[in-house]
Design a protein that fits this description.
The protein is an alpha+beta fold. It has a single domain, classed as Jelly Rolls. It contains five helices and 15 strands. The longest helix has 25 residues. It starts with 6 loop residues before the first helix and ends in a 5-residue tail after the last strand. The mean pLDDT is 96. Bound molecules: 2-oxoglutaric acid and fe (ii) ion. The site of 2-oxoglutaric acid has 9 residues, from strand 13 and strand 15. InterPro entries: DUF2086 (IPR018655), Oxoglu/Fe-dep_dioxygenase_dom (IPR005123).
């Protein structure tokens, strides 16, 4: 989308009631054409700017997969910070519905600063947004991005590379683990500029006796050729 709309206007224009329904019933929602090609290219170009990062992880070293990711330092790049701050409040009603259904007793504050306040009080002070790069053979094993006791139940991935043009393979994969059942998978291939919102830990599903937890994990299948770059926006900070 070549657009002159601000990020706030673009986020505001989404059908958040529909997104709420998708998060509750499927655990993810795919928003198409949120970022322009120029914004994607600008974000990708940040990858090699060393001073922006607090740490760089070679995924194979920890057997997390194959590829590299880099955690941004504070202050975050403007577009990452804006999206983190702007998207958060739209997700709070769904997050609080999850909490009420599971009766965990926590309520998420209405603005992102409030969530960071809770994180910082609990000793979670390190920024979690990151940029990930996979080359031929790269992949990301199934995982959850929790980073401490305080976590927000949704997170976001920005897709910066074009499938079948910049890379092949490298699908985004999610699994749902229902209690006492086999796992179900979803395989997505979002396009450059798309944004995916998904459940970090679990989603509540109504059963005969109240709600039960369906754990969700995400990862990336093997990249067959080319280079795939994403930015992950996690709303809570890390220990
Ligand atoms: O590269 C991807 O699509 C997955 C990124 C990821 O695991 C994350 O942002 O938490
Ligand atoms: Fe992740």
């Amino acid at each position: 989308m070549e657009t002159s709309f601000t990020l706030l206007q673009r986020v505001n224009a989404q059908d958040w009631l529909h997104i709420d329904g998708e998060l509750c019933h499927k655990g993810f929602s795919h928003l198409e054409n949120m970022l322009t090609t120029e914004e994607c290219n600008n974000l990708k170009a940040l990858y090699s700017c060393d001073p922006l990062y607090r740490s760089t992880i070679d995924m194979s070293k920890y057997r997390f997969g194959e590829g590299t990711y880099r955690y941004f330092r504070y202050p975050l790049p403007d577009i990452v910070n804006q999206l983190r701050t702007i998207i958060y409040p739209f997700l709070v009603p769904t997050a609080n519905k999850f909490v009420r259904e599971m009766q965990t007793g926590t309520e998420y504050p209405q603005d992102h600063g409030g969530l960071l306040g809770y994180c910082h009080q609990a000793g979670q002070q390190r920024p979690t947004p990151l940029i990930l790069k996979y080359e031929k053979g790269g992949y990301n094993t199934l995982h959850q991005d929790l980073y401490g006791d305080i976590y927000f139940p949704f997170q976001v991935v920005l897709f910066l590379s074009q499938p079948n043009e910049d890379f092949g393979g490298g699908e985004f994969v999610m699994t749902e683990q229902r209690p006492r059942a086999q796992s179900k998978v979803e395989v997505l291939q979002p396009r450059r500029g798309d944004v995916l919102i998904f459940t970090t830990n679990y989603r509540p599903v109504k059963g005969n006796r109240g709600y039960y937890r369906v754990a969700m994990r995400h990862g990336v299948s093997r990249v067959k050729w080319g280079e795939r770059v994403t930015v992950g926006i996690i709303f809570h900070d890390a220990k």
